[in-house]
Amino acid sequence: MKQSSEKVYALAFGAHPDDVELACGATLLKIMKEGRRVAVCDLTRGELGTLGSIEIRKAEAEKARQIMGYAARVTLDLGDGKLFYNEENLASIIRVIRRFRPEVVFANPPDERHPDHMKASKLVADAVYYAGLKQLVTTEDDCKQDAFRPAHLLYYLQFKHLDPDIIVDVTDTFHASRAGISAFGSQFYHEGSSEEPATLINRKEFLTGLEARARYFGEQIGSLYGEGLLTTRTPGVTTFSTLFP
């Protein structure tokens, strides 16, 4: 059996490089600040993006990894604009889950503006389940991997407004997370970028909008900044005073 020496507490999947940083970067920083290890997996190389090349986006993803302090960042090549639901793509994601053996998985939301985000959501959700089936065999470095099913699957929020089930207080990590976002410089507004093709996220107002949403979610829980998450099942409370201090 292939035994993982790369175990992390949280594994965040994104359809494209920068999905994770834009949607839950401050939450991931909060987890790492609590002494837990985090890894990220981009399902595609973002090759269909209007701005930036594959090489540029690869370098930006690595820069973001260094800035954020992830234990690892894996980039799969499942096809930007494709992300077909098939056995091969499921196996690729299952292999990553079994490699890192996370307790918590983050994924794109199931209801979203971008078709790739919804496809990624379904692939990751099903891979989380199938990763726990020992009869479904995957290998890494020619060694059979142990079955493993993460305890929790959470969906972060992207462009479409969805009411969160959980809001994480990210007041202490929000501004630091902006540095991770800034690593993807080819995708966002900067001085002199007005001549580049217009996209939804390279508008000057886009990053301001992200902060406005974080302020809105923070207001809902009495903090300065918040990030919203969707759950796939009702969370239980073991120690009451932990949830209601």
Automatic annotation (TrEMBL):
Organism: Chlorobium limicola (strain DSM 245 / NBRC 103803 / 6330)
Pfam families membership: PIG-L
Any single biological process term in GO: bacillithiol biosynthetic process
GO MF, any single term: hydrolase activity, acting on carbon-nitrogen (but not peptide) bonds, in linear amides
InterPro entries associated with the record: Bacillithiol_biosynth_BshB1, GlcNAc_PI_deacetylase-related, LmbE-like_dom_sf
Protein name, per record: LmbE family protein
Gene3D superfamilies named in the record: LmbE-like
SUPFAM superfamilies given in the database record: LmbE-like
